[in-house]
Amino acid sequence: MPDDFEEKPSEFNLDHYLGVARRRHIHFLIPLFVGWVLVWAASWVLPPRYQSSTLILVEQPAMPKDYVTPNVSDDLQERMQSITQQILSRTRLLHIIDQFNLYANKRGDRLPDDKVELMRKDIDIELVRDEQSHQITAFNVSFKSRDPHLAQQVTSELTNLFINENLEVRQQQSEGTTQFLEDQLESARKSLAEQEDRIRQFKGEHVGEMPGQLASNLQILSGLQSQLQNDQDALNAAKQQHVYLQTLADQYRTLQGSAKTSDGNVAPEGLPALDQELEKEKAQLADLRSHYTDRHPDVRKLKEQVAETEKMRDQLLASLKTKDADHASDNPDAGAAIAPGADPAQATMTLQIQGQLRSNQLEVANRERDIETLKAKIEDYQARLNQEPIREQQLADLTRGYDQSKANYDDLLKKKNESQMATSMELLQQGERFRVVDAPSFPEKPQFPNRLKFCGMGLAVGLALGVFVAGAFEMLDHRIYNEQELKSLLPVAMLAEIPEVASPIDEKRARYRLWLGWATAVVVVCTILAGSAFSFLRG
Description:
Structural class: alpha+beta
Oligomer: single chain
Shape: rod-shaped
Radius of gyration: 66 Å
Order of helices and strands: HEHHHEEHHHHHEHHH
C-alpha cells in the first residue's frame, strides 16, 4: 500500500464518542446499574458491626507536687502500655468473653485463643496528646460488635478495667516503692548501728587515748608531774627528818648516860640540833606559804611538824631544868655523874622520838610507793599522748564510715516518709487518675459496613463495568457508522455520498431506542440516588 494511504495517528474526535454514547448507552447503563446494585446490596447483606467508644481524661494529682511528691513513674505512656497489656491479656479477655458470651457461633467450634484474637482486633485504643507538650492528656477506648448494646456494655467494662487497673497499678507501685525504701532504711539502720558499735568499742578499748581527751591528758599529766615533784620534795624532807630524828634519838640515849658539866649542870647536847631543825622547818614553811595557801596539805603537815618540833624542844628544856634542880638538892657535888635511867622524863622523850622515827620511816615508805605509782601513771599518760595521733587517724576512718552511713540513713528516712505520704495520697485516690469524659456511646449506625461509602464504591464499580462492557461491544462491532470511518478505509478520495434513507419503521425504532435509553438512564439514576439516600438515612 502506498505511503499516502498509511494510517495516521488517531486524534480525539468528539463526534465519534458521542456516536458511541448514542449507540452503546444501554450497554453502559445496565452494567452500571448491575455493578452498583451488587455492591449496594452487599452493604445490606454483610453483617453490621457497631462501634462504641468512650473518652477517658488523664487527671493530674489533686495535691500539688510541692507538698507531696508522687512516688510512681511519671512516664504515662510506659504505664499505659503496661496497663493495656494486662487488660488485653488472655485471662482478662476470656473473663469478658465468658461474661458477655462473645463470639459464640451455632457450631461452637471456636477455640478460646481464637476468641481472644478476635476480641483483640475489635478493641481499639487511641492516645490523645497535647499539641505543644506532646504529653498524653486523654485516650479513646472503643469496641466493635454486631450488637450495639453489647458493644456499649463491653466498652463500659473495658473503661472500668482501665480506671481500676490504673488505680491498682499506681497503688502497687507506690506501696512497692515505700516497702523498698523501708527495707533499704532497715539495712541502713543496721549498718549505722554496726558503725556506732565499732566506734563505741574502739573508744572503750582506747579510753584516754582519744583526740578529744588530749587537753585533759595534758592537764592530768602536768598535775601528776607537779604532784610527783611535791612528793619527791616531801620524800626528801622526810628523809632529812629521818636523819634528824635518828640523830636526836642517839643524842637522847647519849644524854641519859652523860656526866655532869663543870658547873654542875647537865649538858643539853640535843637542844642545838632541835633549834637548827626548827629553824629549817620554819624556813621550809615560809617557802611553801609563798607558793600555796595554809589549806594546802603540805603546808598543814609542815605546820604540824613545826609545832611538834617546838613541843619537843619545850619538853627538852623542861627536862633539863628539872634535872638540874633535882641534882642541886639531892647531890650538892656538881661533879657527880647522873645515873642512866634516873630521869623518867628523858625516857619518855626517848620513846616519843622513837615513835616519831617509826612514823617517819612509814612516811618515807609511803612516799616512795606513791612516787612509784605516780611515775607509772605519768608513763601511762605519756604513752596515751604518744598513741593519740594513731587513734585520731583510726577514729577518723571509723567516723568517716559512720558519717556516710548516717547521711545515707537520713536520706532514706526522708525519702521513706515522703513515699509514705505519696502512698497515702494514692490510697485516697488523690493521685493521677483516669476520669470518664464521654460515657460509652450507643452506636445507632454500624461502623461497618458504611453503606453510604458502599454506594460510592458501587457507583465506581458500575462506572468501570459500564465502560468496559460498552467498549467491548464497540470493539467487537465492525460496522461503519460515519463518513470519517469510511474515508479512512478507502484508498482514494470519495467523489460523492448518498445520504441515509430512513423508512418510517426505522424512524419509529430510532425514537423507541431513544426513549428507552432516556428511561433507562432516569431509572438508573433515580434508583442510585434513592439507594444512596436510603443508605444515608438508615446506614
